[in-house]
Specification:
Length: 696
Amino acid sequence: MKNPNTLNRSVAFLTGIGAQTANRLEKLGIHIVQDLIFHLPHRYEDRTRVYPIGTLAAGMTVLICGKVELTDILPRGRISLVCRISDGTGFITLKFFHFTANQHNALKPGTLISCFAEVRYGFAGLEMVHPEYKVITNPDSCITETRLTPVYPLTEGLSQNLIRKAVKQALDLCSNEPELLTDWIPESILKQYHYPSLAEAIQTLHAPDESVTIEALQNGSVPALKRLAFEELLTHYLSLRKSKNKIKAWQAPEFISDKITTDHFIRSLPFKLTGAQQRVIAEIEADCRSQHPMMRLVQGDVGSGKTVVSAYAALLALTAGYQVAVMAPTELLAEQHFRNFSAWFDGFQTQVVFLTGQLKGNARKEVLQSLADGRAGIIIGTHALFQDSVNFHRLGLIIIDEQHRFGVHQRLALREKGQQNNIRPHQLVMTATPIPRTLAMLQYSDLDISIIDELPPGRKPIVTSVIPAERRDDVINRINSWVNKKRQVYWVCTLIEESEVLQCEAAEKTAERLIQALPNVRVALIHGRMKSTDKDAIMQAFKNHQLDLLVATTVIEVGVDVPNAGLMIIENPERLGLSQLHQLRGRVGRGDDDSYCLLMYQSPLSDTARHRLGVLRGSNDGFVIAEKDLELRGPGEVMGTRQTGQMHFKIADLARDADLLDNIQKIGEQFFTESPQAVQPLIDRWLGESTEYAEV
Ligand code: ADP
Ligand code: MG
């Protein structure tokens, strides 16, 4: 009888792997034999061909073959053995900092050797440092490998050799009993996309045959790689979708809208809702009627009016006798929501309260009490809202604004926090980060997506120009004449460093210089390290036009609404992602007049950077910009590291494999109906014990 579970046994089952090694493998997420099979090389080395030395360039990792011309010990600096070899097409220096007398003797002039290492630039031209090398007798014995050498991700205490041997054993088990490794991708899909079977794909990636080139492996065009990347992406989709199915099965309060109240609300707004806002509101209403938790993401460009849509959802909850929590990523933004909600719900017989970490003492007690006894219908704040000390009377709806600031983890955790008795609140999340459609389908497959694809009428496009920092004086003049026209200006300072302290220091210096250069302009500085009351005072003063120029760090990315400020200068825009720049820029263009954004870069600008800033100049559509950013810099930049950090892929690369995303949703849905039995095994295979999308 065959043991069908061999692949599910601990790696310690394999020869040569003891408890200690097994422990180390755990650090790589390798627990069972099957995990080894899916521990794929992250790169390859090519020892299958010899490169003429004359064709080498720094950065190549290659096999070469040549005759030693001279060998010497250099006492200069760190003592080293250097050796020059040539093959008639060129020469290269080998360098050893650790060496023995035997080595020195063996590398005497005239000796033929083969070397493998990365080529670098050294003092004397190209060099290889500590190459693997072998003395050979004839040039034909130079090549010892017919296949590319896999290089695996390692962790401390593990060697390539050990992993290679372990993987080989696992692969042998599979080839002896192919049925051990189930291929969950149906034949029809394999045919349609010309994908190899799972066994073939695995074999190819661990031990590529002669037909596979290193270039094809690097650029991802090898069908084996595509197939596995596809399977992995599909699994991520299935996992999130599964968690959505589970959550959707929970009970949630039923909000039946009352036409008199909703009409009253809509009529009391100072503007008419756009068609897109009305459509999304209808989608939300339908969700909230279903007695199961709504889980909806509202995507809409900056200024598309998402807040009022969420306020409408809040109205539905209040009408049904439930409370609403509105969470914003920054205090500034929370404050603005508080003002808006307070105005919109004035006359609706509910209390809107505000909670941040700053609120202390009796004021805080009073807010918490009003929540607990149900007097307060809407609470607005930062993530302080979800501390243990906050108890709701009857929470029915959670609204999360600018959700891109929070990762998948937080999103899932919040659902749990909001649970009361057996009822789970509805959840509405909003983001102004326009995520390319296909990426959103993967990343947010646990959410339903609504898109507000229309701006309120009368908004004029922002005129964006790209200028070098050398023209700073022109920019200063422009600010002067702009302020003379009674208009206001933002000056945004950016820094590569994540350090807030450094950002603030830079902004302080800039503000000082601008105050000197612009004596007739009222300048103020706002940054993330200021007390929130001070920030508030400055924002208020800017809003009241007691200030002309606001120097800011990227804290103003969200939450500021000053229609008279129609000019924004962004320093060093090349450091930021396009979507973030687009969001910053969205702070201007909120009034009826023309508005401008000057992207003032530090020369020299790389071609990619020039191209990217050009995209921003050419388009005011956040979705177009996000698509381009995905193309140019990959999803990390589009989504912000904090978020892509949540999705770890073993082999898929969202930029390289973007073409795969198109079909993931369709095929994923097919899986739920046609091969539901494949879902869990795929999740076990690719996500293993990762708790990332665990049931919440
Ligand atoms: P965002 O989608 O970026 O969060 P906001 O909700 O802050 O946008 O809305 C931006 C501005 O547009 C606010 O001042 C808001 O009151 C206003 N607004 C929202 N909807 C409309 C509309 N339909 N017509 C005119 N102005 C609107
Ligand atoms: Mg907003």
